[in-house]
Amino acid sequence: xxxxxxxxxxxxxxxxxxxxxxxxxxxxxxxxxxxxxxxxxxxxxxxxxxxxxxxxxxxxxxxxxxxxxxxxxxxxxxxxxxxxxxxxxxxxxxxxxxxxxxxxxxxxxxxxxxxxxxxxxxxxxxxxxxxxxxxxxxxxxxxxxxxxxxxxxxxxxxxxxxxxxxxxxxxxxxxxxxxxxxxxxxxxxxxxxxxxxxxxxxxxxxxxxxxxxxxxxxxxxxxxxxxxxxxxxxxxxxxxxxxxxxxxxxxxxxxxxxxxx
Amino acid sequence: xxxxxxxxxxxxxxxxxxxxxxxxxxxxxxxxxxxxxxxxxxxxxxxxxxxxxxxxxxxxxxxxxxxxxxxxxxxxxxxxxxxxxxxxxxxxxxxxxxxxxxxxxxxxxxxxxxxxxxxxxxxxxxxxxxxxxxxxxxxxxxxxxxxxxxxxxxxxxxxxxxxxxxxxxxxxxxxxxxxxxxxxxxxxxxxxxxxxxxxxxxxxxxxxxxxxxxxxxxxxxxxxxxxxxxxxxxxxxxxxxxxxxxxxxxxxxxxxxxxxxxxxxxxxxxxxxxxxxxxxxxxxxxxxxxxxxxxxxxxxxxxx
Lengths: 261, 304
Description:
The complex is a heterodimer of chains A (261) and B (304).
Chain A: H1 14-27, H2 29-55, E1 57-58, E2 61-62, H3 63-94, H4 97-101, H5 108-136, H6 148-169, H7 177-190, H8 202-211, H9 213-225, H10 232-259
Antiparallel strand pairs in A: 1-2
Chain B: E1 7-16, E2 19-29, E3 34-38, H1 45-52, E4 60-65, H2 74-78, E5 81-84, H3 96-106, H4 111-124, H5 140-151, E6 158-162, H6 170-185, E7 189-193, H7 197-203, E8 206-211, E9 214-219, H8 221-228, E10 232-237, H9 240-249, E11 254-256, E12 259-264, H10 267-277, E13 283-287, H11 290-298
Parallel strand pairs in B: 3-7, 3-8, 5-6, 6-7
Antiparallel strand pairs in B: 1-2, 1-4, 8-9, 10-12, 10-13, 11-12
Helix pairs in contact in B: 3-4, 8-11
């Protein structure tokens, strides 16, 4: 049990794995750049303008402006989580890419770290494409909202680490559906995304703050896009940094346990 | 460890739970030779290959590859290894060229160099025409050739081939053999496993036969055949009369299915004796092969 938390010996070679994934991604960039644009527009029209025409505002904030940071946070979560669950699982199990890579000077720790970095990068790319759309609709403040980009990396790394833990223990690709619809889907609804977390019963509020990582990312994104900065941003950042560190370390060790026999 | 070989293994062990996959083997591979591992399924060949390739840590014993220990310097060893795995694991997201180029990057080979090598290796394995084709569109033989090219991308000091011609048709196998012989002639050190005994006979300078995690014999293919079987084999169709006759003549024999095998130094004499005295249905004489040695040592029972 103890060595699940030991610091894995990751080297700079991890970036080679990241580079490999980036190469594949940019080769099919037309396909990959389209979803973030569409997703941003869908959310804005369906929830922002649709529901927003009834709700108008929440706590004095226009409803579209209220959900804009949530759209960013959910995108960060989804892109990193699905990249490091289904994406990594396919590369690990079906394509045997990890086996091929560890026959080179890359270690399994480098490979998994590269996958995690790539998952976080996917989140950054998603946010970078979404930001101009949201800016054009005037639902986020500039230039402070540009901070969403580094926070996308941090949040992305957190969800990548969590996702990789599931990937490491999932017996097959189908069982990855469980975390997707038991963890990710509810989280995207109950983390202060489309309504303030304070509307939840007090116990659920504590639950969301303690155990739903998205809550903290949404809070940070909202503080920088409205903007409404306060000192609590440091608490949210602290929470995310700790969780990210723990899950990234554990995921690499779990993967080593799964793949190196 | 005192050996000066490319690989030195002493009492090498690997256990999975209570199962000993490799049970204290000792071997040494010299520079420039082709060294073979033969054995039935589950004998421990692939496990041994994986320990040499630094992707599976050993449970016990000592192992030195290119003078380094896989436990302490895996990256240093792997930098100088070329590996052809049993399972095809080419990257389906890339073309043939892309596979070689991307793989070169894992070895810190500069882009320009990687490009030159990728082109040269495609030429070497006769896949230049398929340069820009994704690997899914390749035939089985082409995939194995591309994997061989990929294993050469870092100009390795040691090539590890785990069943390089598995599942290939005779044409494709011959082409791989040709390439391996060319590499052998250039002085490459190669360690390989195979189920094809003719392949082992053709390619290996020395080989070991493994079973149940242990090495049964070691030697050159010709030595092993001579030592364990003899020069020639006479095959006779099995019948009670022939069996009784052979027993009467006190000639040692082995029965497999419908055939009686007699190992001998002179098949002519035995065949003549059989024809004169035992009146067999059919008699066939042939040179002894590695397959005879293999089956003699590892038995004829089917393995999982």
